[in-house]
Design goal:
CATH class: Mainly Alpha
Number of domains: 1
CATH topology: ABC transporter involved in vitamin B12 uptake, BtuC
Radius of gyration: 20 Å
Low-confidence stretches: none
Strand content: under 5%
Mean pLDDT: 86
Number of strands: 4
Order of helices and strands: HHHHHHEEEHHHHEHHHH
Structural class: mainly alpha
Length: 332
């Protein structure tokens, strides 16, 4: 067997192992809930909703190379959009979700068209400043947002083919989050593997070269930002309706830093990596909080430093090393 055929064979085995791992994970997520206590069903539900946010952020950061510190705005707009539609207009789950996602997507389009005029460090600082400004405005609009106290509402029922299922039921909330989690992954994976996804990666690797090849870099960045904002707001909408609560702290820039750590730890530019990072840290921080609620920010900072120092491959890089090792053994 020559070198090229050996490489192709190993690559095929790695892809096959990845496919089997994804199928195994989906089967576990589908079959596990009836055997779990209510608290762990709730924790898995939150992890899947946060994972949608992480995948959305990965389109912006991992695939297009934009380190955004204002993504919490889109998450918060989705959360508040759905909550306000439920409270003031008494809309059902689907209509509230639609408006929440639209608010976040429009916000990402409008803010993105302004902030993308900057690059590099200026982009990072501008996104952080905008995040702080929007957060402070949301605190001042206490009559609308409830400020730090937030706003509470009755969790909606989920209408589906003539039946209604209460989101207050842990099983219903779990499978609702699971369906959106799976759909979001396959939609974003399809996007990442498309021609558009290839352009995103070209922009990430070398903006000047992509521009010289005839691509309108600004336009493609705005598309990436809008798609990322849309799925971020989807996550926020699901989060608020599952909790029956929305809070101005959802918009705080620390939420953007947190999702950045999830993506960095799991492995940016992979989609699977952010999922792994989110699940690992959601359960890890829950364990940390059982010791002390004050340790969470400290560990978050440590992980951020380690992630920046080491590499962007994170957990997915370790898994790829294991896959290569297994494929080499199978090839003998």
């Amino acid at each position: 067997m020559n070198l090229s055929s050996s490489y192709l064979s190993n690559t095929f085995r790695i892809k096959k192992l990845k496919m089997l791992a994804v199928i195994a994970l989906l089967l576990i997520l589908v079959l596990l809930p009836p055997f779990l206590p209510s608290f762990y069903k709730y924790l898995l539900t939150m992890a899947m909703i946060w994972a949608i946010f992480a995948m959305a952020y990965d389109i912006c950061f991992g695939y297009t190379g934009m380190l955004s510190l204002y993504h919490a705005i889109f998450f918060g707009f989705g959360a508040y959009g759905s909550a306000l539609m439920l409270i003031h207009f008494n809309l059902n789950f689907w209509s509230s979700l639609f408006f929440g996602v639209c608010f976040g997507a429009v916000a990402s389009l409008v803010l993105g068209s302004v902030i993308l005029k900057t690059k590099g460090v200026h982009f990072i600082l501008s996104s952080f400043i905008i995040g702080i400004i929007i957060f402070l405005i949301s605190l001042r609009l206490n009559w609308l947002t409830g400020g730090e106290d937030g706003i509470s509402f009755t969790k909606p029922e989920l209408p589906f083919f003539g039946f209604t299922f209460p989101l207050s039921d842990y099983i219903v909330a779990y499978y609702c989050a699971l369906v959106f989690f799976i759909l979001s992954y396959f939609c974003l994976d399809r996007l990442a593997k498309s021609q558009l996804g290839l352009v995103f990666r070209a922009v990430r690797e070398n903006e000047n070269l992509a521009e010289s090849l005839g691509y309108n870099v600004g336009r493609y960045k705005l598309i990436a930002m809008t798609v990322s904002g849309l799925f971020s707001s989807l996550s926020g909408s699901l989060y608020s309706m599952t909790l029956g609560y929305s809070n101005a702290l959802f918009i705080h820039p620390t939420q953007s830093v947190q999702v950045f750590v999830w993506v960095l730890l799991g492995g940016a530019g992979t989609l699977i990596g952010p999922i792994l990072g989110t699940f690992a840290l959601v359960f890890f921080f829950d364990w940390v909080r059982s010791w002390s609620p004050h340790l969470h920010p400290i560990f978050l900072g440590i992980l951020l430093i380690l992630g920046v120092i080491r590499s962007h491959k994170g957990l997915i890089g370790l898994i790829e090393l294991l896959q290569r090792s297994i494929s080499q053994k199978l090839g003998r």
